Amino acid sequence: MRILQASNIYGAGFGIPSISTCPKRHATIATGEALAKSGPIARKFSEQHSLKTGDVEKEGNSVVLEKKDFAVPRRRAMALIFSSFLLSNYELPKIACAQSVEFREYIDTFDGYSFMYPRNWIQVRGAGADIFFRDPLVLDENLSVEISSPSSSKYKSVKDLGPPQEAGKGVLRQYLTEFMSTRLGVRRESSVLSTSSRVADDGKLYYEVEVNIKSYANNNELAVMPQDRVARLEWDRRYLSVLGVENNCLYELRIQTPEKVFVQEESDIRAIMDSFRVNKIAA
Question: Where do the TM regions start and end (predicted)?
């Protein structure tokens, strides 16, 4: 018996931050060996029938459960159909979340940076950033790289931004500026969650900043009475930035993810952040 489960799709719009960028040249992608994180998957099918480790396979982005020695009496067929329906709607999404995540490496030799990204993410062109990838299923989850223009300011080190705490405030101000709305009844709540610095294996100093932004909007912004204008939560997102300096430019890796998704994918997001490197451009 084969049961295929499609992943849940979270449909939502997403903001695309942008700052002034260097003159854009065509980027090149060098694909390295895919990195995989593996983990055991085990799930109980019912009290009478259980799936062994060998029964779980992966085909693309779907989880396939194989059970060859599975005989069902005719009078229990309806019960099996019902239990299969429950499994496909409630159990398989949990199994899908436990699948291993594979990464690819993106290397831009022209602009001088590299990072790892999930293998199933797709590149979006014309998004305003130097490079932009997004999750094809969770549309509110994406990453991008922004590069400052050396004609406007020349950076020697990420320390030119001040200590990490000051850099965090600047990152938050930039996001709030980009997310300004002319709609009536829109309110933003924001905070800097954490700031830190680290020296990577390339010997360069990087800043890491995490902020949270919530957007609220009135359900009826044109209502006359205040009690008729009820604010509701539109979205709740976490924005993570990695800042580095090279080639007199400030590089920023930006990751956007819904807060509820971040809780599930934190280790993968941290891996992307740790992989970001800025490189000297060959003369």
Answer: none
